[in-house]
Design goal:
about 300 residues; alpha/beta; Aminopeptidase; OB fold (Dihydrolipoamide Acetyltransferase, E2P); 2 domains; 13-stranded mixed beta sheet; 17 strands; binds zinc ion
Length: about 300
């Protein structure tokens, strides 16, 4: 039975007087092995990975573990509480300010302390993301370890530049084997995405030698190097033309992805169509959802 230890990473005192601190669960096996970090809710509106980590932690309690697994399920508790992508106190996207600044904005201070407390000693990092409250997404980034990314088990793997200031970029710069996953989001088929996240993490832990057993390999994985985001130019109610069942599938050029309506006048403001001859669907909205101009509408890749 692995030993379980809960530690609080102290960040600061909030204006309310309450402490800002992050729970870190450490599971230590009896045998030597790698140290693997798993993080979620750097963006506080990405909830499915948090539940996946609760389920994974329960399974690790009785697992045959080599090495160490360190889990921080909520890296940004302030944005989790508000269910927002950015930290409400300073309007900042935490995953754009790493490695942070101890004398910067609150999010920058959080980033700096978290880097200092969590990354040292890690051999591998799995940073979990999802589509947020409304969109649903399904892919994983290839950072510096394609086999580890593949082991998580999404059909689509994206080898791309990513964004500056991410937690994963700091981990990569320190030579840590790193995967960023983007799986789930929205409320449709929530249980399925959570189950896939748990299974993907267990498979990645088998690949790393932390859990025993055969690594499952998909044979239908696709590596993409271009990922396009369609952002509506008009806000309103976005009514889907393609559903969550189209994720990982190809749609033809001109396919109606969604329509933005003025929710009050019912005026049709914009239609979003698939731009490429063949489009692999990566992110979609499966239900009628509120959209602002510039929000994530759809993500797709030409194939
Ligand atoms: Zn995210």
């Amino acid at each position: 039975m692995p030993a379980h230890h809960l530690r609080w990473i102290e960040i600061t005192t909030l204006a309310s007087g309450l402490p800002l601190r992050l729970a870190e669960h450490t599971f230590s096996g009896g045998q030597p092995g790698p140290s693997v970090g798993i993080t979620a809710a750097i963006h506080g509106d990405e909830l499915a990975p948090v539940e996946a980590l609760r389920q994974l932690a329960a399974r690790l309690q009785s697992a045959e573990l080599r090495g160490t697994v360190r889990i921080v399920p909520v890296v940004n508790p302030l944005s989790f509480q508000a269910q927002t992508r950015n930290t409400p106190q300073d309007m900042t996207n935490l995953n754009r300010v790493f490695p942070g600044d101890r004398n910067g904005w609150l999010s920058e201070q959080l980033a700096a302390t978290f880097v200092a407390e969590f990354l040292p000693g890690l051999d591998a990092l799995l940073d979990l993301h999802a589509g947020g409250a409304l969109p649903t997404v399904d892919y994983a980034y290839i950072e510096n370890d394609p086999d580890l990314s593949a082991a998580f088990g999404t059909k689509v793997l994206y080898r791309g530049p990513g964004f500056p200031g991410t937690f994963s970029h700091v981990a990569v710069s320190r030579g840590i084997r790193t995967v960023v996953t983007e799986l789930g989001g929205g409320l449709l088929r929530d249980r399925e995405y959570i189950a896939r996240t748990v299974a993907g993490l267990e498979n990645a832990l088998r690949h790393l030698g932390v859990l025993p057993g055969e690594v499952t390999r998909r044979t239908d994985q696709i590596v993409i190097e271009q990922l396009d985001t369609l952002r509506p130019n008009q806000g309103g109610l976005l009514v889907p033309g393609v559903g969550v069942d189209q994720l990982g599938e190809v749609v033809e050029q001109g396919t109606l992805l969604g329509t933005v309506y003025n929710p009050q006048t019912f005026e049709m403001l914009q239609e979003l169509h698939a731009p490429h001859p063949r489009n692999l669907m990566i992110l979609t909205r499966g239900a009628a959802t509120r959209v602002e101009a510039g929000d994530y509408g759809y993500m797709l890749a030409p194939v």
